[in-house]
Amino acid sequence: MKELKLKGKVWVFGDDxxxxxxxxxxxxxxxxxxxxxxxxxxxxxxxxxxxxxDIVVAxxxxxxxxxxxxxxxxxxxxxxxxxVAEGFARxxxxxxxxxxxxxxxxxxxxAAFQGGQEAEIDLEKGTIRNLAxxxxxxxxxxxxxxxxxxxxxxxxxxxxxxxxxxxxxxxPPAAP
Amino acid sequence: MGQTIAEKILSSxxxxxxxxxxxxxxxxxxxxxxxxxxARVAANxxxxxxxxxxxxxxxxxxxxxxxxxxxxxxxxxMAQKIIxxxxxxxxxxxxxxxxxxICHQVLPERGHILPGMLVVGTDSHTTxxxxxxxxxxxxxxxxxxxxxxxxxxxxxxxxxxxFDITGPLPAGVYSKDLMLHLLGRFGTEAAQYKxxxxxxxxxxxxxISERMTLSNMSLEMGAxxxxxxxxxxxxxxxxxxxxxxxxxxxxxxxxxxxxxxPVDARGLEPQVACPxxxxxxxxxxxxxxxPVHQAFLGSCTNGRLEDLRVAARILEGHTVxxxxxxxxxxxxxxxxxxxxxxxxxxxxxxxxxxxxNPGCGPCFGAHMGLLAPGEKCxxxxxxxxxxxxxxxSAEVYLASPATVAASAVRGKxxxxxxxx
Lengths: 176, 420
Ligand code: SF4
Description:
The structure holds 2 protein chains of 2 kinds. Chain A has helices spanning 19-22, 31-36, 46-49, 70-77, 90-99, 109-112, 144-151, 155-170, and strands spanning 5-12, 55-58, 82-85, 103-105, 118-122, 127-130, 136-138. Chain A is α/β, with parallel strands linked by helices. Chain B has 2 domains: 5-14 and 22-262, Aconitase, domain 3, CATH 3.30.499.10; 272-419, 2-Layer Sandwich (Aconitase, domain 3). The site of iron/sulfur cluster has 12 residues of chain B, from α4 and α11.
């Protein structure tokens, strides 16, 4: 079970951060290189400087562009806690939920943060606090069904667990 | 309150009386299509306990090899083998190997798509099925794994937007020109996460092939679904290909749209999308004369029999310009065969076109017909992003089959109406 509360230092990005910025196409065939260049076209210091639990704050249309699932995957690989944005592109949104990567849509969040400040997020309530300024914002909390996918670590985790349990139930009990 | 097409299909598949935009609904899926991404789905299945590696309904899952077909190298040959094996192990009733053609052509033409269906595919242009009144949309491979196990998926009910298009289109102007015009005028984000409905006399006058071009490229406007209003032409098309029962899903008279855009298409000129965005659209008169090194006729957008017919009419009695090569890839084996039957392929060969096998190859720069640095190509495809068909510095222009054929003859971008 994954925590639905996040706390971490923020990295701030603008509008229309596309999948080519998050995962530059050149490095697609090599996951390690991809992680080393994540977000590089927008901020070269990100991939090196990001710490587990850090949070990405962005403007409108985050994750637009191609349907590559590598975009949320690479952020998850870098152990980013989650992304809070003014808005998300459809496929990025869906792929994030699918792999259990936390997201929150929150109007006004871009203006409320500066890089390096600390944020505290409650995904269930949809609230965000800037611990440096005290500012409190209300985003749109995810639907309970989608929150559940994040809580359980993504669709593959849910499926594997469900099927493992089912398989156990199907097997004859061990002889006494 | 009345419902739009998307709302009706999502409520019926979610077991609900009605739904409204923004709601999340867990829906039953009628059909799941996977192409090359199915190799990743197969890898996911390998993590499940062996005895439970089953798809929810082998009749409702279609696997298909169209990207990189036939395999250009060992790596893709391997991926295709994985899919072939997976289809066999899962007992899929329908598996189409490299010989069949492009997914969005093969599924409708073989009667798999029925009006009112909810279809998911591992391809973004799954919106194409909107031309038959089916709700089709693209998903990733993790979600596809989920669908294959459960037969269900969550959907956020989209806002619907409507375009009322007054026609008929003038002679020499096609549905591709209309779509490019919409893209240029309303932008590539006009339908972001929305369900697009195209209504009006211009749509009614179109055959199914032309409507498929519209639904296909609704994705370039960001659409989640791209419907043309289904009518008796859709019924005829489907009845000729399937014995399954269906009913047309049409919007209620009092359905709510986030926006309604009236568009008068009666004076439209042929349109061209210039590099590097499908939204960078100009009337052909503004770009005419631009030299092209390659012309491509094919893809799920415009590789159907009707498209080849239009091109052949223009090419008849001409030859492709010596500084240009014309690549033709019929969208499916059936299109290919029918084009031979009608003498279209002979006409194309007489005009010195290069006719290739059906598949996705050139459309997304996978193999066959890539562009060298600095080359320009005019294509009937749906995307012209930087590097889409080869070198980063190559330029791709998107246009109708008529404009592509006319440009191939002259070796430069040409208004097809000069050939009437
Ligand atoms: S023809 Fe092009 S756009 Fe259509 S499915 Fe194939 S690669 Fe995608």
